[in-house]
């Protein structure tokens, strides 16, 4: 009998990399990918493994309690890796309730279903909640987020993720639910929906459209290549300690404007355009409300306890990412048709 593992949000950006890793690496697991296929979920991300015998896709919503309970009864999931979420800060500013519903209520529905199934029989079970460094709020010019930094979320997105983290921890304390949480910095790489900074700017450079830099562009993020995140998730799922939190980061801080300039140079080079062409597209636009100045992760705990570190340098990861978008023009065309255009016009008022 294969062990049933549930991965939620597996048709999204990070989830699809996690699903691929688990399906290929663990023939002894049966991986069920549960995803409601919002605008961010895309089964094209998983074409290479969709026929694997140890993989099943289920379309469904994590907030649908009856459906989720039935699914847990059907598969008796021994492990859950929970990535499904509304994940974009700008969308959380226009529609905060959708974030509360999926990120808080959806997480609670999953926790309840897991508790119902395994209370008094927790041995060998694991609920792994994937979260973000944004729960810690913002840093000044110095300092790093550690696992003990107090939560101080500033956007509806980060507030909803912070709340879900608290519920996971509370189920651990109250019911003994065996959980682990990771809080990761900004991911980039293949299959990311072009509403986040790097894929949006790659898409706009290809199409020679303006590059909308919020505020003065001096905001700082720590960037991690998505495959390195998936590797960390695999490690924490199998070797992380119960009731622990691990921060995951790239040891790779960039001010937005500096990152954008490197991206422009690499794109000009790869597209055979004269140096400086893409930089001319940089346009400073109105700032994001409540914009966090700086995120930076101290990932020494996962490094020291589990031996994880990023495998790819930023220049290398960025180059691979650009190459992926340039050779997957059909993927990009599909996700930027239809409602994407409406979103873009509303967000950037063009
Ligand atoms: P994404 O938006 O690309 O994917 C989210 C997936 O969840 C999509 O496939 C979507 O269809 C699915 N989904 C949304 N609502 C659902 C619902 N109600 N029921 C079932 N499925 C639903 O997001 P991502 O960037 O891959 O992020 C995945 C997780 O990692 C999220 O929990 C996010 O908070 C966290 N995270 C992301 C980053 C990042 O930089 N992208 C960094 C740290 C943590
Ligand atoms: P984003 O990719 O949305 O991730 P997050 O908000 O979770 O960090 O944004 C990364 C940074 O880039 C953030 O400081 C906001 C900025 N940004 C822009 O300047 N312009 C844009 O069009 C977008 C989407 C982001």
- Which ligands does the model contain, each kind named once? nicotinamide-adenine-dinucleotide, thymidine-5'-diphosphate
How large is the count of helical segments? 12
What is the top-level CATH class of the domain at 3-188 and 223-251 and 291-312? Answer: Alpha Beta
- By secondary-structure content and strand pairing, the structural class works out as alpha/beta
- Percent of residues in helices comes to 40-55%
Mean pLDDT rating: 97
CATH topology of the domain at 3-188 and 223-251 and 291-312, which one?
A: Rossmann fold
- Report the count of strand segments: 12
Task: Report what the structure shows.
- The chain is an alpha/beta fold.
- The protein has a domain at 3-188 and 223-251 and 291-312: Rossmann fold.
- 43% of the residues lie in helices and 17% in strands.
- The strands form three sheets. A seven-stranded parallel β-sheet has the order 3-2-1-4-5-6-10, sandwiched between helices. It has a three-stranded mixed β-sheet with strand order 7-9-11. It has a two-stranded parallel sheet with strand order 8-12.
- The protein is globular, with a radius of gyration of 20 Å.
In short:
The chain has helices spanning 13-25, 65-75, 89-94, 96-118, 156-175, 197-206, 226-239, 256-271, 300-306, 314-327, 329-335, 339-348; strands at 3-8, 29-35, 55-59, 79-82, 126-132, 179-184, 186-188, 211-214, 220-225, 244-248, 253-255, 282-285. Helices cover 43% and strands 17% of the residues.
Walk me through the topology.
Layout: E1 3-8, H1 13-25, E2 29-35, E3 55-59, H2 65-75, E4 79-82, H3 89-94, H4 96-118, E5 126-132, H5 156-175, E6 179-184, E7 186-188, H6 197-206, E8 211-214, E9 220-225, H7 226-239, E10 244-248, E11 253-255, H8 256-271, E12 282-285, H9 300-306, H10 314-327, H11 329-335, H12 339-348
Parallel strand pairs: 1-2, 1-4, 2-3, 4-5, 5-6, 6-10, 7-9, 8-12
Antiparallel strand pairs: 9-11
Bound molecules: nicotinamide-adenine-dinucleotide and thymidine-5'-diphosphate.
Nicotinamide-adenine-dinucleotide is lined by residues 9, 11-15, 35-38, 40-41, 61-63, 83-87, 102, 106, 130, 132, 161, 184, 186-187, 193.
